[in-house]
Amino acid sequence: VSVQYIMAAVNDTKFNSAVFLLTGIPGQEDVHLWISIPFCLMYVISIIGNSVILFIIKTDPTLHEPMYVFLSMLAVTDLGLLIATIPTILGIYLFNSREISFNACFTQLFFIHSLQCIESSILLLMAFDRFIAICNALRNASILTLPRIAKMGLVCVLRGIAVIFPLPLLLKWFHYCGANVLSHSYCVHQEVMKLACSDITVNNIYGLHISLLMMGLDSLFIFLSYVMIFKTVLSVVSQTKCLRALNTCVSHLCVVLLFYTSEMVLSVIHRFGNSSTYLLQILLGYVYLLVPPLMNPVMYSMKSKHLRSRIIRLFVK
């Protein structure tokens, strides 16, 4: 199916060697307009959800606590991911616009990957916040002050930019030949790299190190944080306090599992998948990029009573 779609895309488009061709869902070109409806709904709900979270946290002084400040950082990152992917994803399904210039593609993949790295760092900070709040509650306010949180956020941003910045620069030096057809409706490093006619060893090794050293280490430290949290919680005599402490971690755990599981599965399929996993790769790509920004506001507002009541009051008025 993928080979037929690639040939059709090349034949149907006035091919320009300075552009890549993006892919929707192969074999479903006739219903792309209908497929655009759920994508539009997901984008609208995600943008509204994250914007509401940001608005409530900014306007309610009682929510100016570490947990909610980190949540607002997560919402900003999710909005960035949505903005980075909207033009190409909706462009394909609404206007059948498959072409993307090299520079636009490299810019998009830079934002997608750097924002993913930033999100991973923020999830680690949120785990650290839960660890301090539960295991060292008396010093929580003195350790996680707002200026210190701002510095942590800046480090997350600089870390994501510094690590990803070499990727588009390396890709820009490659020579591209052949069909130049990507298997997603947006640009990612793993896909663009495969289209190069040059030696991609450096990109391959560097990309693998990013996955292992950044995502791998972040998820490992999150895991260790929760080991310490559960150890502390289980030593609490009161069952009510134990459950209350665990309840504050549930939403974060769900977000972490959703983010890292989809990222890990997609990375494995990109590196070791074949033509039989082509459709799965496309669908998982959408899950990886679009589901976390959609679900994060839902999961946090469901588990935070204060946040939930403020959202209800905002819309009931």
Automatic annotation (TrEMBL):
Coiled-coil positions: none
Residues annotated as transmembrane: 31-57, 69-94, 106-128, 149-171, 208-230, 280-300
Keywords: Cell membrane, G-protein coupled receptor, Membrane, Olfaction, Receptor, Sensory transduction, Transducer, Transmembrane, Transmembrane helix
Protein name, UniProt field: Olfactory receptor
A single Gene Ontology CC term: plasma membrane
Annotated source species: Gopherus agassizii (Agassiz's desert tortoise)
Domain spans labelled G-protein coupled receptors family 1 profile: 49-300
Family: Belongs to the G-protein coupled receptor 1 family.
Domain of life: Eukaryota
GO BP, sorted A to Z: cellular response to lipid
GO molecular function: G protein-coupled receptor activity; olfactory receptor activity
